[in-house]
Write a structure and sequence with these properties.
CATH topology of the largest domain: Rossmann fold
Number of domains: 2
Radius of gyration: 39 Å
CATH superfamily of the largest domain: P-loop containing nucleotide triphosphate hydrolases
Strand content: 15-25%
CATH architecture of the largest domain: 3-Layer(aba) Sandwich
Mean pLDDT: 87
CATH class of the largest domain: Alpha Beta
Number of strands: 23
């Protein structure tokens, strides 16, 4: 389905002696604007480019890219007319059959970076269906912000523009100005080579390559990106894998042990018998720590076997202290719950304030866009003027009571300043819950530590309330205590080690997922669909270049390079060594093959191609006939081609016999008086 259809162009010029201009209606398929040199045919195509905001392809931005006839003076007959005001209206349609009319002023009180959009057919339908909405061009945010015209146009066309890398390794959008050289071949620089008008100011890496990939909707960019992401994921997981090994080494070093069975590189599964373990030295032999613990428990049991102790109850003082400690524990636990609730409240308050800051930043950006549009000359209503509350965004209903007329509303500049002040004030307010949160968390940690200590004391007193009636030897008690402490230490260490070892499983799961994702990608950087598209692209190009009578090289074995998507023979670009006229044939063949190939696949081609003076370098009539025959028989239901030419009228008519076309021919100037 054609993404963009050019329906009509209207050029408006007000001079010191009346109105001038013209309106051109375009059809499906081939459209030709014919006029003599310096009569305004290129002005028509360039006006379309200007209306769309792509005049940078002409070498300059703004009105500097346009001829004097639209901004300074025009000559009609023998008389010179001074231009007072001028503008262009472009009526276009997208694949959803939605019409809009774009108006961009040239010489006017409005800034030329301002673009007005009305929904409906303002040129051919007798008037706009909805009021003009202003957007801006060639300014920061015009491709990304809500009021940016190229963001609006991309959405209207249905483009999902990818992010690409700059030479500074930054991620930016692929600007539409970089794509349109594949659709628009302008007269001055466009015929010097393929994509010769591609702007370089954005510093995008391999910009011509990524533009072709986007238009053909190749998977290769996404495949390369995914492969790079997988390499990064692998590196990060290997780092985590090694970090886990370091953590296990640290734990085992507490008992002078060694980690055994740890895989040197990430794996997806592990058998139970191969799970990493700690080994320690017993006598002169290394054994597993869990086996060593069994040995220590036996030794401890033997040491306790002679210590037959009779236990009995004791003492009121201990009971009293136990009661106090339990009351303190209850009090501390209540304080713990209160602190936890306060922390939750502080977090909620901080979250609300952060959300408010985000909303204020959005409002600031919107206000800045509106101020920019008004500075360019647009009339833009604020939220309040549109009947929407700027604070809660609810609709403001009708007011029953009479309102005073002497109320002054804040100007946009004052509103912007107020919003910025609100943002700073909200940031200041955010400091309080964040600071309190830090204090509360410290209080929580202190309470948790105190509660733990009280519980230990309660446990100790409970143990002291049971006292032995007879005491064993002090040396025996010391030995038992020493063994118990060592056993407890090693048991705790083993528990830590086992808990740490469980971190292997999520890492193995992640590694398996990474390998599965990697296996889904083609071994090559091109998907099978990409290969089919490029093969068809090469076939269409070859068929075109042969029909157009290219003679600089033998046309056998032509392919599309996988490096830069240019046509090559025996590894060398065809453009190198081609004659001037053959270079024109090469551009014809390439641009048409791209459109033909894209029309047969899911692509991002807009379905429109523009050729300004395709008959360059005294091109042979036989080649021009084949050119018109080819573009005239393109699938007109899904494609449109616009040509501007100074070809002799009779010669052109003869070439177009039996070729479906819409010829708009001018015997005099295109820009003429309007009654």
């Amino acid at each position: 389905m054609q993404k963009l259809f050019i329906n009509a162009l209207k050029i408006n010029v007000m001079t010191n002696k009346g109105k001038f201009g013209n309106t051109i209606i375009f059809h499906k398929g081939l459209n030709i604007i014919r006029a003599n040199n310096s009569s305004g045919k290129s002005t028509c195509l360039n006006s379309i480019l200007y209306a769309l905001g792509f005049e940078i392809l002409l070498g300059k931005k703004g009105t500097e890219a346009l001829t004097p006839v639209l901004k300074e003076q025009l000559i009609f007959g023998d008389e010179v007319f001074k231009v007072i005001e001028s503008s262009v209206d472009l009526e276009i349609k997208n694949s959803k059959d939605e019409f809009i009319t774009i108006t961009r002023h040239i010489k006017s009180s409005f800034d030329n970076r301002l673009v007005f959009v009305s929904k409906g057919k303002s040129v051919t339908g007798g008037g706009p269906n909805e009021s003009n909405e202003p957007y801006y061009l060639h300014s920061v945010g015009s491709a990304q912000n809500e009021r940016g015209f190229h963001r609006y146009l991309a959405n209207f066309i249905g483009f999902n523009l990818p992010t690409v890398k700059t030479y500074q390794d930054e991620d930016i959008l692929l600007y539409m100005e970089c794509i349109f050289p594949l659709f628009f071949i302008e007269q001055t620089r466009g015929w010097s080579g393929l994509q010769s008008t591609t702007p370089t100011m954005y510093q995008i890496k391999n910009v011509q390559r990524v533009a072709v990939e986007f238009v053909l909707n190749l998977d290769v960019s996404e495949i390369i990106k995914k492969k790079q992401q997988i390499l990064l994921r692998k590196t990060l997981l290997r780092n985590k894998w090694d970090s886990l090994k370091n953590g296990l080494d640290y734990i085992s070093s507490s008992c002078d042990g060694l980690v055994r069975n740890y895989p040197s590189h990430p794996i997806t599964t592990i058998e139970h018998r191969n799970i990493p373990f700690v080994s320690v030295k017993k006598d002169n032999e290394w054994i597993r720590l869990d086996e060593y613990l069994i040995f220590l428990r036996e030794c401890l049991g033997n040491s306790k076997s002679g210590m037959d102790v009779v236990l009995e109850s004791t003492d009121n003082n201990a009971n009293q202290e136990l009661k106090v400690l339990k009351n303190t524990l209850y009090s501390k636990q209540m304080m713990l719950e209160t602190t936890q609730e306060l922390i939750a409240q502080e977090k909620g308050a901080a979250y609300s304030l952060r959300e408010r800051i985000v909303q204020l930043e959005l409002e600031i950006k919107n206000n800045q866009d509106i101020i920019k549009l008004k500075r360019y000359g647009a009339i833009v209503q604020s939220k309040l003027e549109q009947g929407e509350c700027p604070t809660c965004h609810q609709v403001i209903g009708e007011v029953l009571l009479k309102q005073p007329n002497d109320k002054e509303f804040l100007s946009l500049d004052d509103s912007l300043m107020f919003l910025k002040q609100q943002k700073e004030a909200t940031k200041f307010l955010l400091n309080q819950p964040e600071q309190m949160l830090g204090l509360r968390e410290k209080e929580l940690a202190t309470l948790e530590r105190d509660i733990n200590e009280i519980r230990i004391k309660i446990k100790d007193i409970n143990n002291e309330l049971i006292q032995p009636s007879a005491m064993p030897k002090i040396s025996e008690m010391r030995e038992v205590i020493k063994k118990e402490e060592n056993l407890a230490k090693l048991e705790s260490l083993l528990k830590q080690f086992d808990q740490k070892t469980t971190e292997l499983y999520p890492l193995m799961d992640l590694w398996r997922i990474i390998l599965e994702d990697e296996a889904k990608l083609p071994r090559d950087t091109f998907s099978e669909t990409d290969k089919v598209k490029l093969k068809k692209f090469g076939e269409d190009f070859t068929e075109n270049i042969v029909k157009f009578k290219y003679t600089s090289k033998i046309t056998k074995g032509i392919t599309i390079s996988e490096d830069n998507y240019k046509p090559i023979i025996d590894g060398f670009e065809m453009a190198s060594g081609s004659s001037a006229s053959d270079n024109i044939r090469l551009i014809w063949a390439y641009i048409l093959a791209l459109q033909e190939t894209c029309s047969q696949f899911d692509s991002n081609h807009i379905g429109v191609t523009f050729f300004d003076e395709p008959g360059q370098h005294a091109m042979a009539n036989v080649s021009k006939f084949q050119f018109y025959h080819r573009i005239g028989h393109i699938d007109r239901n899904n494609n449109q081609i616009l040509v501007a030419t100074s070809e002799e009228h009779d010669t052109l008519v003869n070439m177009l016999k039996e070729i479906p076309h819409n010829l708009v021919s001018f015997d005099d100037k295109v820009i003429k008086p309007i009654p």
